[in-house]
Design goal:
Blueprint: E1 2-13, E2 16-27, E3 31-35, H1 42-49, E4 57-62, E5 65-66, H2 71-75, E6 78-81, H3 95-105, H4 115-127, H5 143-155, E7 161-165, H6 173-190, E8 193-198, E9 210-215, E10 217-222, H7 224-227, H8 230-237, E11 242-246, E12 249-254
Parallel strand pairs: 3-8, 3-9, 6-7, 7-8
Antiparallel strand pairs: 1-2, 1-4, 4-5, 9-10, 11-12
Helix pairs in contact: 3-4, 3-5, 4-5, 5-6
């Protein structure tokens, strides 16, 4: 079964084509890293998979279910981890409130958490190793801890697929290194497929099953050894890129940081 099947997807925003004839199939469970410069359509792709942005043409299937006319069913299969910058810091939310958000939002504005919701939230926090922070203020956590809480929030709805939007932005190296093994464990032990938008390729070289090089169109799709090539990355970023091969892996050592 495929976690996601995208066929000739075209999306427009404000009269501009943001995605054009995008096609790929991701086996389930797998980890897919979606890579490209700013404005490449990476976040738009995630939001289209969630049904937030409509497609002009093309089709999407999630776990074999067509997105069209099945939006509610599809959203129950997906957990979404947004950028931390999209979480309001003006509201004094505690960790428990953040994790419970996902379950409560699926049951309407007047739904009150039940025993099963609290249990699911605690189990999700325990899975990421932060159950002891249940009553702590979200804004008092480190960047890595906040990211893990957002992962727990997505896990609390028991998804088949997780979508991550730039999960490593603003994180220090130790926090980044703590999250990457967690993603791999989610795929292996929980059978969750992960689609992850990122600017930084190297941390995911040994973790991702597939990589999608996206710049409005698909520049490349395949396993890291197939797509981490100088010619494809230069086309992706519009600037010369140097790739070094080491121990059956490829690493990007130079590219235009402003691409």
């Amino acid at each position: 079964m495929y976690a996601v099947e995208v066929n000739n997807l075209t999306v427009e925003l404000d009269g501009f084509t943001v995605l054009e004839n995008v096609s790929f199939k991701l086996e389930h469970p797998s980890i897919l890293a979606i890579i490209g410069p700013n404005g490449a359509g990476k976040t738009t792709l995630l939001r289209t998979l969630l049904g937030i942005i409509p497609a002009v043409s093309g089709s999407i299937k999630v776990m074999g279910i067509p997105l069209k006319n099945n939006l509610t069913k599809i959203r129950r299969l997906i957990g979404y981890v947004p950028q931390r910058t999209r979480i309001s810091t003006s509201v004094p939310l505690r960790v428990r409130d953040v994790v419970l958000m996902a379950r409560l939002s699926r049951n309407g504005p007047f739904y009150l958490p039940r025993k099963k919701d609290i249990l699911a939230a605690k189990q999700a926090l325990e899975y990421v190793g932060l159950l002891d922070l249940w009553n702590k203020r979200f804004t008092h956590l480190s960047g890595g801890q906040q990211q893990k809480v957002l992962i727990a929030r997505a896990l609390a709805v028991e998804p088949k697929i997780l979508l991550f939007d730039e999960p490593f932005t603003g994180l220090d190296i130790p926090s980044e290194k703590a999250i990457i093994p967690l993603l791999y464990t989610l795929r292996v032990k929980k059978g969750v497929s992960i689609l992850l938008v990122t600017h930084d390729i190297n941390p995911l070289i040994n973790c991702a099953d597939k990589m999608l090089l996206l710049r409005k169109r698909v520049i490349g799709f395949g396993n890291p050894l197939e797509v981490i090539k100088e010619d494809l990355l230069t086309q992706l970023y519009g600037a010369r890129v140097t790739v070094v091969e080491k121990e059956k892996a490829c690493y990007v050592v130079e590219r235009d940081r402003h691409a």
